[in-house]
Amino acid sequence: MLQPPPTQARILIVGAGPTGLATAVSLIKHRIAVHDIVVVDSALSGQNSSRAVVIHAATLEALESIGCRTKLDATGIHMQGIRIQDGNGSPFLVNDFTSLHPCTKFPYACMISQAHTEIELNKELEALGGHVFRPLKAIGMKPVGNGLQVSFETGQTITAQYVIAADGARSVIRSVAGIGFLDPEGLEKDKSVDPRTSQMILADVSFDSSLDHVFPVDHYTGNFSICPDGLFLLAPLAHPKVQSTLYGASEPIYRIGFSVPLRKGEAPSQPGLEVLQEYVDGQGPPIISSDPSRNPTNKPVHLKKVYWSTRFRTHSAIADTFFKRIHGDTEQENGGIVMLVGDAAHIHSPMGGQGMNLGLRDAVGLGAVVAKHIQSLTGPDANTNSNLELLQGFAKERHGRASRQIAMTKRFAWFVGSLMNPWSIQYWVLYVMGKIPFFKKKLVWQLSGLGNR
């Protein structure tokens, strides 16, 4: 029998993806009692469908601050750089992360599935005495006295002073709190990203041949292929231990990702091997093609097995505010506090692997500031009105960082879109810029998140 959740909590975290779990761990590490925190999620463990695959330097620093970096960093692959190439396999830009050495202990990107990140964060939460109550899907929320009562599909309710919405882009908590969620430029959903890259497919797969010639063991590099039909990502997923944990696999597993232009219609929600092979051959680097006439090695490479796949649509949006006080019906009732984190607060194109990273940094900081606010409530007359500037200031600052992140991913999307047209002036301008050391260092700096911690 599943353990029932308590009906009262000081802090209720709705959503147990990476940001919800990291917020809970951060709260505990900042001396909030574990029995004051309740974490719920609408899905059973392991049923998430959105899987990021990279943890950047700034996020590794944030995770280290709450003791959650070491195991993830040890089981992930340290990606030393990026390579962007055209559809024929010719390099357009080759970059590495060595320029980050003076700025961080982590001059690389850690490649590891979001699913494994969640596993490790959940282990840390449980080691601290915490627990995720599943499956509990939030359907409503209302002010009750000096708190907020969240109701669930099961008929259960939980009342808390602080409700942290980590329940994704379609956040129920954000919606019932009356917080808007729009593109920061006011663009409509279908116009907030390039239609050529707004529909994406991700998959974890194995191949029937070794890809050691693509990924030298001593210098892993992420591969991006860009052609007029779209873009294609190829990267090793993680070390064998992770592959075994996630999929029971003993063979190397790779993450592939590619765009499906809207003009081609809606892609299948869980594409199989045949569909994936078509795009590997059409948009992937020639060196992994199953077509011998296209593969320069004359040794066709075929997909062997699909372990997981998904289709999703991307757009950019940000919540009007990451903080809201919801008052009761009388002046004597202070009401409760809603804070947003992760995709509930901001979403954007996956270009550069920035979404989960900013969400995790938000979560670590949110745990610290909520803990500081609670610890400031001392004395017989204290109430949650005290020092609200702590929460409001944090929310405003993170809102600004999210806005800048969205703008950055839009620039990345423009960059990719320009490379899809080799006959354009922008293509050749970017080609020249890709040879300039300053431009290359700036790109790595922006990807690392160090300038937008």
UniProtKB/TrEMBL annotation:
SUPFAM superfamilies: FAD/NAD(P)-binding domain (SSF51905). Residues 10-218, 335-375 form the FAD-binding domain. Coiled coil: none annotated. GO terms for molecular function: FAD binding; oxidoreductase activity, acting on paired donors, with incorporation or reduction of molecular oxygen, NAD(P)H as one donor, and incorporation of one atom of oxygen. It holds the Pfam family FAD_binding_3. Its cofactor is FAD. InterPro entries: FAD-bd, FAD/NAD-bd_sf, RIFMO-like. Gene3D superfamilies: 3.30.70.2450, FAD/NAD(P)-binding domain. Keywords: FAD, Flavoprotein, Oxidoreductase. This is FAD-binding domain-containing protein.
